[in-house]
Amino acid sequence: MAKSSFLIMKVLGNILLYVSAALFIFPLYWMITGAFKNQSSSVKIPPDWIPSKITMANFSNLIHEGSIFYWLYNSGFVSVVATVGVVIIASMAGYALTKRKFKGSEFFFTAVLIAMFIPRQITLVPLFTMMRDLGLVNNLASAILPVLTIPFAVFMMKQFSESVPTELLEAGRIDGCSEIGLFFKLFFPIIKPAIGALAIFTFTYAWNDYLWQLIMLSDKTKMTINVGISTLVSEYVANYGLQMAAASLGFIPVFIIFISFQKYFVKGITLGGVKG
Q1: pLDDT tens for residues 123-165?
Q2: Which domain does 209 fall in, by range?
Q3: Residue 233: strand pairing partners
Q4: Is the peptide bond before 46 cis (omega within 30 degrees of 0)?
Q5: The ABC transmembrane type-1 domain covers which part of the protein (predicted)?
Q6: pTM of the model
Q7: Is residue 104 part of a domain?
């Protein structure tokens, strides 16, 4: 009886998981199939769940217009630079907060925690004023700099840094290793799983950062993919097929990054779960 109940619960659990997975995957399916539909098929009611006639016109129009290449390059540049910067800054902050205790470290970490609870919308005006005074409006640097200060990144790396044995670093100091050497040769390799998880988080965050990039970037050659897609909607008509095609192209780099760092991401989440 108990075995039968267990099997029933297992089957029901699997069904629930498959249904949930289908619900999460459906928007992706709709985006990709919509990229191969013409305008009439995109707005058809009831919709064509499977494209009745596949067309490459949307991709052809995007390539012929040319702006998609600027948008993808800008998004890639912003995301890669921001990811590298966040990984270095956050890992160094985690190292300093856990392995190099200094006066005021607790206050600094408390400030980081408080910053995590500040709604981002509150910071838009002062950030814009700062970027304007620095002359960075309509400059890709304005899309990168705010990402470098994500409080969650410092919090995450500080928590993971707690798992690094202090004795290992002390042994390195006894052997005459410098602080830079300790960080890059001993500390950095140990926290690779955390770095992988942080890299995925930061790259995705920077790639999908629509609101701030919309505020700062107005030149069509400086726009990122998300801002560029918004320009495909005119006052009177929205070409959904063209938008879906651009969104599908914009999805590819994020997917590649996730696949590349997936093993580190899984290890990082697992390690974090064990520590929690």
Answers
A1: 889 999 999 999 888 999 999 999 998 888 888 888 888 878 8
A2: 59-275
A3: 238
A4: yes
A5: 72-261
A6: 0.81
A7: yes
